UniProtKB/TrEMBL annotation:
InterPro entries: RBD_domain_sf (IPR035979). SUPFAM superfamilies: RNA-binding domain, RBD (SSF54928). This is RRM domain-containing protein. GO terms for molecular function: nucleic acid binding.
């Protein structure tokens, strides 16, 4: 099961993040993403893969709502957006390469 772990401070280092996720087997499927929102704030989120759905649900229960460097962490099942899926809310991601919101 893939787990989205978000609302991580953009200033967090990989060492701090690993300490926070103590006991989570990050395996080779671990992915860390960095970006900027519409207010030019740096953010991070992590996608971690668990071996079983039960482990994934336990990880969500353990992490969701916990504070990490003063920010409340969001943990939930990761569901990737496909290219044909429409997002019905304001886009918050910023494409720095092209200087535009979204993409």
């Amino acid at each position: 099961m893939d787990i989205f772990i978000g609302n991580l401070p953009g200033t967090a280092t990989l060492v701090e993040l690993t300490d926070f996720l103590h006991g989570v087997d990050l395996r080779t499927h671990f992915q860390c993403h960095e970006g900027y929102d519409e207010h030019a704030r740096n953010y991070h989120f992590v996608v971690a893969r668990t071996a079983t759905p039960e482990e994934g649900l336990a990880l969500i229960e353990r992490l969701n709502g916990r504070l990490f460097e003063g920010q409340r962490v969001e943990a939930r099942e990761y569901l990737p957006r496909g290219p044909g899926q429409i997002w019905d809310a304001a886009e918050r991601r910023v494409n720095r390469q092209f200087g535009q919101v979204g993409a």
